[in-house]
Amino acid sequence: MSTPVSADDPLSKERSHLTASRSALRAMREDVQALDIKDVTANWVNAEVLTRQIEERIKALADLSDTPLFFGRLDYLHAPGADQAEGAGGERFYIGRRHVHDGDGDPMVIDWRAPVSQPFYRASKKDPMDVGLRRRFGYTGGDLTAYEDEHLSDPAEAARTSKLLQQEIERPRVGPMRDIVATIQPEQDEIVRSGLQGSVCVQGGPGTGKTAVGLHRVAYLLYAHRERLARTGTLVIGPNRSFLRYIEQVLPALGELAVRQATVDDLVAHVEVRGTDDADAAVVKGDARMAEVLRRAVYAHVTPPAEPVVVVRGARRWRVPAYELEDIVRELLDRDIRYGAAREALPQRIAHAVLVQMERAGEAPDDRVQDQVARNSAVKAAVKAIWPAVDPAKLVLRLLSEPEFLAEHAAGVLTEDEQKTILWTKPARSVKSAKWSAADAVLIDEATDVVERTHSLGHVVLDEAQDLSPMQYRAVGRRCTTGSATVLGDLAQGTTPWATRSWEEALGHLGKPEAVVEELTAGFRVPTDVITYASRLLPHIAPGLTPVASVRENPGFFELRDVSEVGQVVDACRELLGREGSIGLIAADARIPVLAEALEAAGISFLDPGQETTAETRLTLVPASLAKGLEYDYVVLDEPRAVVDGEPDERTGLRRLYVALTRAVSGLVVVHGGELPEQIR
Known about the structure:
By secondary structure, the chain is α/β, with parallel strands linked by helices. The protein has four domains: 10-193, no CATH class; 198-271 and 390-525, P-loop containing nucleotide triphosphate hydrolases (Rossmann fold, 3-Layer(aba) Sandwich); 302-386, no CATH class; 529-680, P-loop containing nucleotide triphosphate hydrolases (Rossmann fold, 3-Layer(aba) Sandwich), CATH 3.40.50. It starts with 9 loop residues before the first helix and ends in a 9-residue tail after the last strand. The relative contact order is 0.10.
């Protein structure tokens, strides 16, 4: 409820607290800027590290003028942690994006991630969690303009839907993806605050906030486990660069700056990708069975020793017979360690066998002697012959170029037809000249891990996970073998020929079979009329999924228009530009050049996906293949049949259409000259 301003009005007092809090934040920033590190650093290295930390702290304390510093207030009946039987007085906390304290160190704003803030998201009339009053604030830009109260412990007050919460959910989108910190729902908060040790998979339909939940989970984990994750690192993986540009401002808005973002292709960039696979080849290359083919091919380089190793030291000759070498090799193979680690251990094992003979002969060799023997030319030659170095890219080149080599290592794993499918018709002469595909790069990454263990991070967030192949899941899983993962996706939006069939299967490939699968079904982004229409596709693309139920009070608008020319598509865009917010014109990839030309002829400027909308340019022209994960206030969807026909099979095409239909926040206009797919007529 909005309230007129007076000297003793609550809104005036809240504005005063906002002003004081901003001043306190500014003082905190100035204190950091004034730090003199000359007397606390022993050398230039320490000075550089401390300077960088101070710079990051200054950035984290920036006051974003158009972003609310706090968005809620909790008045506890009793002081948190106090014995309620003693009748201890309550406390008041303002909940915001970061902690702010005054000159005496007393908190003026509490970080939303702190335990004391949790009831702001979870308290209810049924379980008030000792909260007497929950107050939500409404803002216009950075100005506090309204408030709304819930007396959770008052049995006389009925539970009701928050109007300010609805307004915040439905606020027009202009610019990058917004954080949801002010609107997190109880089921979302439970996922956000789940522990670092466990992995979680979030199945969420369009507009359920799964991406935002994943990003806020990163922010929460960095707050709760700062030191550990500072050592081990965090990573957010998105489907493409456009998507990463779209979400990249969420974490900085929450005060987190040190989270790396990448695509799966970035992770496996061992070679330059210049080629493409047809769907059949990509499916086979992405199959988890390829891991066994690669493992066999790597370890096939190990050759049983046929000759003894003779080490000459001074006047003495020490002989390690072939059968003893064979025992050493068999032991290393049985230990199931990385190929490269075993290769490094082999000369030391041979040297140890020599040292045993030396000790039997009465000598007293030490570790330095063992290292010298391990570097002996005879030992080096034996290691090169028995356990040669393997170049992963060259290995994959051979598998894809030489039918005999592939057949030898794929026997009983891939059928003859599958082997023919992935063999290159024109074998490349070298790693550099090869036209590697994205799937090939993943194979090289797998082979690289067989040779040498991949570095593991503390936590990985994988978004739009439903589109990954089993081999891509393995590539991601290698980056968090000793850490945890947050997997985000929607099985109904899988638009690759190898799309995930079940989360249990996907989590197995990721190496996280114990991960908890949570399903979000409350839709906060897509209006009721739009999601109801799009959900007609679910029985055909993902029959086991629960349809999203929109919680939006505003039903939005939805319209089907039969058009006869491209100019009418432009007219629909111009009409929507008369409204507030962002506009997306989504079309089959093949239709993009025609539509771009029509927009330019009409004098309507437009952006590419991932570019930030401005007050001057609010229309984005979006190929259907890049629409996933993006959202616009209003969407014009051009020719649904062309979207479906642009994919290799109907099911994938219908899933692509489902994605395109569910990008709208306030309204959707579907324009078509041809016949609509029968599933949505």
